[in-house]
C-alpha cells in the first residue's frame, strides 16, 4: 500500500508559516551553505520542487523519486495561485482540499471539497504505482489527516516564528513516530525522517 508522507519545513516552535502564510523568514545560511543544502534536498526529493523552478535548478527531466501525487490545503496552494500559477506541481497529480475554491480552477488540479481522509484512503489503495503521496501542507489539513500519515520528513530550521501556522492543527491525539534517519547541515537545518510506530 502507498504511504502518505508529510514533507515540510518547520521552525523550532513548530510553525510551517507565519500568521499571514509567509515562509520567506526561514534562514538558509550563507550562499555556499544554502546552495549545498538546496542541491542535496533537490536531489533527494526532486518532485517537491515547483515546476516553474525545476529548470533553474537542473531538474527539468528529473524523474519523480518518492511521490507521484501531492495533496495540499488552500493555504499551501494560495501562493502559487496568487502568482498566477494554477498548476504549481504539473509533474505530479495535484489535489487541493478546499470547500471554498472553485472546482474548475485549473484542469490539472482536482479540488476536493469534502473528506480528506476518504481521498487519502483512496489514493493509498491505488495499485498502479509504487510511488507515495506527498502531503504538502497546511497545518489544518495535516491535523485532519494525522490518522493516515505514515511518515514525516521534517526540515527543522533554526528559527522561532513566535506565531503562525502550526505543523499539525487538530484535536489532541498523541501519535508516536520513530526516528529513522537524521541529517544535519552546516546552515543549521536538520532533516529528520520519521516513521509511524
TrEMBL record:
PANTHER family from the UniProt entry: 2,5-DIAMINO-6-RIBOSYLAMINO-4(3H)-PYRIMIDINONE 5'-PHOSPHATE REDUCTASE (PTHR38011:SF11), DIHYDROFOLATE REDUCTASE FAMILY PROTEIN (AFU_ORTHOLOGUE AFUA_8G06820) (PTHR38011)
Gene3D superfamilies in the record: Dihydrofolate Reductase, subunit A (3.40.430.10)
Domain Bacterial bifunctional deaminase-reductase C-terminal as annotated: residue spans: 3-189
GO terms assigned for molecular function: 5-amino-6-(5-phosphoribosylamino)uracil reductase activity
GO biological process: riboflavin biosynthetic process
Name listed for the protein in its UniProt record: Dihydrofolate reductase
Domain of life assignment: Bacteria
InterPro entries xref list: DHFR-like_dom_sf (IPR024072), RibDG_C (IPR002734), Riboflavin_Biosynth_HTPR (IPR050765)
Amino acid at each position: 500500500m502507498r504511504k502518505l508522507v508529510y514533507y515540510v519545513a518547520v521552525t523550532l516552535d513548530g510553525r510551517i508559516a507565519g500568521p499571514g502564510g509567509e515562509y520567506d523568514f526561514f534562514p538558509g545560511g550563507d550562499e555556499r551553505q544554502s546552495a549545498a543544502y538546496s542541491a542535496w534536498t533537490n536531489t533527494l526529493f526532486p518532485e517537491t520542487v515547483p515546476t516553474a523552478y525545476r529548470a533553474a535548478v537542473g531538474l527539468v527531466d528529473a524523474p519523480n523519486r518518492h511521490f507521484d501525487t501531492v495533496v495540499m490545503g488552500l493555504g499551501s496552494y494560495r501562493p502559487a495561485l496568487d502568482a498566477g500559477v494554477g498548476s504549481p506541481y504539473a509533474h505530479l497529480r495535484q489535489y487541493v482540499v478546499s470547500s471554498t475554491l472553485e472546482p474548475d480552477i485549473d484542469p490539472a488540479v482536482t479540488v476536493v471539497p469534502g473528506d480528506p481522509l476518504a481521498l487519502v484512503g483512496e489514493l493509498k489503495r491505488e495499485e498502479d504505482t509504487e510511488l507515495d503521496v506527498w502531503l504538502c501542507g497546511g497545518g489544518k489539513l495535516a491535523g485532519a489527516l494525522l490518522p493516515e500519515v505514515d511518515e514525516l520528513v521534517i526540515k527543522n530550521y533554526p528559527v522561532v516564528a513566535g506565531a503562525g501556522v502550526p505543523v499539525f492543527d487538530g484535536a489532541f491525539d498523541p501519535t508516536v513516530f520513530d526516528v529513522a534517519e537524521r541529517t544535519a547541515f552546516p546552515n543549521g537545518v536538520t532533516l529528520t525522517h520519521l516513521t509511524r510506530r
